[in-house]
Each structure stands twice: as C-alpha cells, then as structure tokens.
Amino acid sequence: MQDQERPWTAFYGPSVRKTIDAPQYRTIGDFISATADVYGDLPAFTACLPNGMNGTLTYRQADEMSDAMAVYLREVAGLNAGDRVAIQLPNGLSYPIAAMGIFKAGCVLVNINPLYTAEEMVKQFKDAEPKAIFIVDMFADKLAEAVKEFAIPTVIVTRVAEYLPAMPKAIVGLVQKYWDKTIHPITIPHIRLPDAVDAGRMSKKTLDKGLEAYRSMIDPDDVACLQYTGGTTGVSKGAMLTHTNILMNMEQTMELIPNLDKGKEVALTALPLYHIFAFTVNFLGFYSIGAHNILIPNPRPLSNLKRAFENYKITWMSGVNTLFNGLNGEVWFQDTPPKHLKFASAGGMALQSVVAERWEAVTGKSVLEGYGLTESSPVLTFNPFGKTRLNSIGVPLPSTDLKCVDEDGKDVPQGEPGELIAKGPQIMKGYWNKPEETAKTIQNGWLLTGDIGVMDEDGYFRVVDRKKDMILVSGFNVYPNEIEDVIAAHPGVEEVAVIGVPDGASGEAVKAFIVKRDETLNKDAVRAYCKEHLTAYKVPKTVEFREELPKSNVGKILRKDLRAEELSKAEG
Fold first, then answer.
1. Where are the domains of the chain?
2. Which helix (H) or strand (E) holds 381?
3. How many CB atoms within 10 Å of residue 462?
4. Cα(145)–Cα(177) distance, rounded to whole angstroms?
5. Buried b (16+ CB within 10 A) or exposed e, 273-282
6. pLDDT tens-digit profile of 315-346?
7. Span 41-68, mean pLDDT?
8. Nearest-angstrom CA–CA distance, 104 and 280
9. Residue 1 to residues 7, 153, 392, 393, 424: CA-CA distances in angstroms?
10. CA gap 206, 192 in Å, rounded
11. Taking the model in full, what pTM does it have?
12. 471-571, superfamily in CATH?
C-alpha cells in the first residue's frame, strides 16, 4: 500500500515512524542482554502476592540468572538450538528467568496454560515435542500423569514464591502445603529451578565461548516461540513466531504508545504471561523501556490486585473487558482509583463502550483498545494516545496493512463490513507441522483473520464480530458484539453474552445470557430495553439468567461453550 492508501497514518503522532524497516536487534536474546546493560540495577520484575508479600529482580539479576539458565539448558540438559522448551508457569519471578534463558539458549519457547488438565497437556506435548519443561510445583502432579503418554527428559520445578525473601517464601510454602493443600509430592525426576541456575553458573565458568555463541547460530527468521491458539479455523495449533516477528511487533506497538518515560514506568501485569498480548507487550515491550513490571500470579478474586495498586505507582496496565468491568464494580477500587495511571489498554475480546465509559469515570483515564491475533504476534491495531475512539480498535501499527474484503477476497467499499485481512512483519511464519491449515489462513502474504470489520472515512477500524459468531436471522446478519454492547449498558446487567440458536421460523434466533447486577431484573425488561435501542430482528428472542458465564483463564467470555450447551440441549 502507498501512503495515500493508509489514511490512518495521519493520526500517528509527530514522532511516530510510519514504517519500521527492521528490528533493532537480531534476536530476542541479543535484545534482552543489551537492554539489561542499559537499565542495570533498576527493578525489572516484582512478584506481588495477594497477602502483600513480594520479591523483586533487577535487570542485571534477571540477565545474569537467565544467562545461567541458558547454559544449563545447553550444557547440562544437553539441548540443541531449535529444541522446544515448554513453560507452564503462572506470573512470577521464575517466568522471566525461564523465558529469557530459553531465548538465549537458541531454543524455542512453548507457552502452556498452567491450568491445563493432564489430557490437554499431552495433546500439546505430542505436537510440540518439548525436550524440557518448566512447571510450578502446584501442578507437578498433572505432569506426572501427562509424561506417561509423552516423556519429557528434563523437568525443572519452581514455586509461586520463588526468589521472594526467605521469610515470605517460607510462609507462602507452609500455607500452600498445610492450609491450602495445593502442593503434592513430586513423583517424577526433576531439578529445582534455583539448582538449575546454580548448575548453569558452574558450567558457564568452563565455556570456551560466551553465550553469544548460542545466539550466533540463530537466524532472525528462525522460530522463537510456538504459541498455541484455536486460530482462525478451529483446531488448536502452534503459531510459529520468529525472532523478527516478536521483536518487530514489540517495536511497532511501543512506537504507537507515546509519552512513556524510560526507566520510570510501572506496568501492572494481571494477564498471564503465557497470553500472547501480555507476553509481547507487558513482558518484552515494557522491558525494552526499563519499566518496573508488577506480576500478579492470580488476579482472582479481584481483591488480589488491591495490594499492587496500594504499594506501587502503577502507570499502565492491560486487561480484557471482564477485568475492567470487574474493577469498575469493586468498592475499594472506586474509593481509591490509581492516581498515577496514564492509561490502560484492552484486547483479547471486544471492549464494551459502557465499560470504557465507567472506567474513565472512575479513574479519569482512557482504556485504549487494540486488536490482534496470536498469528500476528499479536498486535495489528491500537488506538493512538489522545486520539481514542470508542467502539474502535484504532489504527494499524506502523508497517502494517489492514483491509476489509468480501467472500471472494475483493476489497469492500470503505464503511462496509468485510473480513479483516492483514499484512506486516509480525505475521507468523505459519502453523507448526500444519501446512494445510497455514494455506487456509495465509494467502498471498495476507493473514485472514476470520473477523468482520469496518474501516471508517479516517482509517479507524472497528470489529463487528467473529465471522463464525455472526447470527443469520431471516437472511439478516446480526453481530453479537452490537447486542452485547446495548445490553451491557443496562444498569441491571453485570455481564452478558449473545449467541445464535436454531429457530424453525427464522433459521437462527438471538439468545442472550445475562448475569444480573440488579436481582429485580426480568426477561421482559431486558427485551423491552433492547427494543428501544435495536431493530426488531436483533432483539433477543430468548433471555436466560445465569449466576456466571463461562470464561477462559484470561477472563474472555466463551460463546463457544454456550453454543455447545445449546446444541447439546437440542440433540438431547
């Protein structure tokens, strides 16, 4: 595309580059070490537990310990460049040591949800074939089951309170073991993470060459990370993200976030680091500017975040719609909103306008909505700071092209809905061992997102809905996001999800699932409210109240689970 075909660049700030030709560093390992040299003894990561206990690693400490971990993986565990290494950890100080060590070793990081069942773990192990895994002791019993189906030679076990001061670490350990009873005997051969770091330190002394020798074997277009996703076509698969993909996306995103003070920002990371947005932006992006990253092992209940807001001058945070909605309703958050917050960013699911408006009313700051997919490392668009538009995912990042096309792949008129397709240096190499799935998703260099979007006259985009979530009512396209946005604005509604269900008269009908804020709310009131704000065919035909809605581990409401329930009822 030429500049005249990229109207959105007019909304970039004066210091924002329209294009980024190449990342500043060859590899992620190079980036990590060079950044640590700049910020040295500044705090890099703090693990903040709900009871107020915490521990911190400086940039220099994280760099040295991850160096040792890289040597352990290569020299002690015997891994080679390109070998896959799994991480199954909650947010904490072990995560950066493990992840940075993997990158420096020239291995491929495989993020795995710590809450996976043994069966889910086996599926991912069999696909990625990791040679080593980092796992928290709370879930080592599941690993013992999983390795019966797929053996992993090297198991490195860590604790939630790893690298906290001795007294807090001991207290947390005792509570977990005897009160919560979340720690079980580990029955498989393993090494503790601190012991692996120490072993790496010892081996490092005997290296003929420095760690640069590992990184010199890596090509920037080599795979750095296998990030698993349901993808745009359903079945879980590993997106192959290269060093260039991730480094470019980190630079592209940070480029569009101005007014950041290097060495002074404090970022709250409540999203799990295995989530691709938190991984690229929170973990690596804010590391690049010397930020102090406050890691929350578990944001549930939301009171777990209270100490972090009390003890640290949070200037930036990321989250999903449900997190912001939940905080809006917390009395402690309403009474003492974060004073130093510059802005928050939302992704992962649609940000409802009423949630954004309530957030701004409580905090006085905006939520900047962005958009992306695992397959794009993940960020494709972001709302420019100071130029935010509600109900918009913003504008494409520098060096990113985005357009809307019809079923035949032809551009639709500006202002008309079409499938969003994207091109840029952050687009994945493909799906791991799935060339046919790759061919369905990347065509002529363009990533087919499966999302329906609209570009306005200024070049701002909004997502209408997922292609597969669209409801067809008597031949009319109905988008759940639109209906959810309306219902969420009702003062009696806490949460809402909308799906399509089979209907003999109209083909499909709209059904709304609602968690009440006001117990007096009834179905007739919901439908009457919808009739005031929506065309008749968009009004939910049925309304069902629930105590809670199914959610992913990052808080994204799972419409697919609701659809599966409805299908099961129909078949039953």
1. 471-571
2. strand 379-382
3. 21
4. 20
5. bbbbbbbbbb
6. 999 998 889 999 999 999 999 999 999 989 98
7. 93
8. 17
9. 11, 48, 22, 20, 11
10. 22
11. 0.86
12. ANL, C-terminal domain (3.30.300.30)
